[in-house]
Structure formats: structure tokens, C-alpha cells
Amino acid sequence: VRPVESGGGSVQPGGSLRLSCVASGSPFDTRAGGWYRQAPGKDRELAAAIGSDGSTYYADSVKGRFAISTDNAKNTLLLQMDSLRPEDTAVYFCAQSYYGGLRESLRFGMDWWGEGTLVTVSS
User: Rg of the chain's alpha carbons, rounded to an integer?
Assistant: First the structure.
């Protein structure tokens, strides 16, 4: 079942946003999840991912600024984004893997995708 994202919006450079994603199927403590983003005119890229054991992966461009986590009681995947930059402007997509392991989810790809939420960073 398609995950559902929320929390996008507009923010000034240096600001923060928190994205949420609710999975109505299996919780994120049994399946890996990730946040991907697609900027205008660019390919979709992985920003951050988390395995069912809590292991994480971050793209170099967001490392130290973004934090991915889960709220398993609410079947929710979270992305805290701090020190936002104009180049972070993109549609952000939540995704969930069939696999629980982070390595497998990155190797074989995600299986369920949300429709995306727009994040705009501009002064």
C-alpha cells in the first residue's frame, strides 16, 4: 500500500522542516525505508535510508544536516532537515522496501512509493 508523506513546504535558507510518512502496511521496524528527492530537471536521488535494525545511510550532500528515524508505534518514517539550502529544493518521496535489511533495500530498490511532497528553500 502506498505510503503517504506530509510536512513539505517553503522555508528560508538555514531553516528546518520535518517530513513524515505513514505506511499503512508493514511497519518500519520490519521493512527498510528511505527518503528520495528529485530536483527540477534532475534525476531522483536517495537522500537517506534506514534499515529495520536502525542502521542508516545518508547521501554526502545531506550528511550532518538531515536525520532519518522511525516512530514504530505510529508506523511512521521521519526526516528531520536542518540547515536547509536552496539546493535542497525538490519533491521528496517516501519509500518502503520489501526487505528489512538496509543493504538489501539499497541493492534491490524500494517497492512502495509515496506521491511526494514539495520542499522549497528560498529567500
Answer: 13
Inter-CA distances, 54 with 32, 46, 69, 111, Å:
9, 17, 8, 19
The per-residue pLDDT for 74 is 74
Residue pair 110/63 in contact (Cβ under 8 Å)? The answer is: no
Measured over the CA atoms of residue 91, residue 92, residue 98 and residue 101, the dihedral's sign is positive
Q: Are 90 and 37 in contact (CB under 8 A)?
A: yes
Cell numbers at residue 29, please? Answer: 521496524
Q: Which set of grid coordinates corresponds to residue 87?
A: 539546493
The whole-angstrom distance between residue 108's C-alpha and the CA centroid of its chain comes to 17
Which amino acid, 35? W
One-character DSSP codes across 75-122? TEEEEEE-S--GGG-EEEEEEE-S-SSHHHHHHH--SEE---EEEEE-
Distance CA 90, CA 8 (A): 10
Q: Provide the pLDDT confidence category of residue 46 given band limits of 50, 70 and 90.
A: very high
